[in-house]
């Protein structure tokens, strides 16, 4: 593996972290079939769903990624996580048991839509960061002067 491939992989880490949290957020729904783990599964899903944008920003800052891209990714991930958060809230506070969830079609549709949105957005963040041009402070100052 060449040095450029390693740099690309490192620049993709914030998005990959968000993608992993997004995947695990949806995967935790599979635990909700057992009555004893129903609420736990949806709480874990909520935490992972909220953790996707947070992990994206934290890992991105540790790797010194562009701040404008981190803000944009965090906003997009936060918006994409709203349907899944709402679905988790419905399941934890309204449905409460696997038996009640068996007849539900609205909440699961919302959850699948939210999970798909979160996966697609985190995948876009994973691909977008390595592709984005890395702007240095020297380039920013020269762009500022050339715009005047």
Describe this structure as you would to a colleague.
The protein is mostly helical. It has one domain (3-147): Up-down Bundle (Four Helix Bundle (Hemerythrin (Met), subunit A)). Helices cover 82% and strands 0% of the residues. The chain is built from six helices and no strands. It has helices at residues 3-27, 38-62, 67-95, 98-102, 106-131, 137-147. Helix 1 (3-27) packs antiparallel against helix 2 (38-62), helix 2 packs antiparallel against helix 3 (67-95) and helix 3 (67-95) runs antiparallel to helix 5 (106-131). The longest helix is centred in the middle third of the chain and has 29 residues, at 67-95. The protein is elongated. The model has no long low-confidence stretch (mean pLDDT 87).
CATH topology: Four Helix Bundle (Hemerythrin (Met), subunit A)
- Classify the helix fraction into a percent range: over 70%
CATH architecture assignment name? Up-down Bundle
Shape: elongated
Distance between the termini: 43 Å
Number of strands: 0
- Let me know the average pLDDT: 87
Order of helices and strands: HHHHHH
Structural class: mainly alpha
In CATH's first tier, which class applies? Answer: Mainly Alpha
Low-confidence stretches: none
Q: What's the alpha carbon Rg, rounded to whole Å?
A: 19 Å
Largest sheet: none
Give the percentage of residues in beta strands.
Answer: under 5%
Oligomer: single chain
Domains counted in the coordinates: how many? 1
What's the helix count?
Answer: 6
């Amino acid at each position: 593996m060449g040095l450029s491939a390693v740099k690309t992989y490192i620049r993709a880490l914030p998005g990959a972290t968000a993608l992993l949290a997004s995947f695990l957020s949806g995967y935790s729904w599979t635990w909700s079939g057992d009555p004893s783990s129903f609420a736990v599964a949806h709480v874990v899903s909520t935490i992972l769903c909220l953790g996707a944008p947070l992990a994206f920003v934290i890992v991105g800052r540790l790797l010194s990624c562009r701040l404008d891209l981190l803000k944009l990714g965090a906003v997009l991930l936060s918006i994409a996580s709203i349907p899944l958060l709402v679905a988790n809230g419905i399941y934890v506070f309204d449905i409460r048991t696997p038996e009640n969830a068996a007849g539900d079609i609205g909440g699961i549709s919302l959850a699948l839509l939210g999970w798909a949105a979160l996966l697609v957005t985190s995948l876009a963040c994973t691909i977008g960061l390595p592709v984005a041009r890395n702007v240095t402070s020297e380039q920013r100052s020269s762009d500022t002067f050339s715009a005047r």
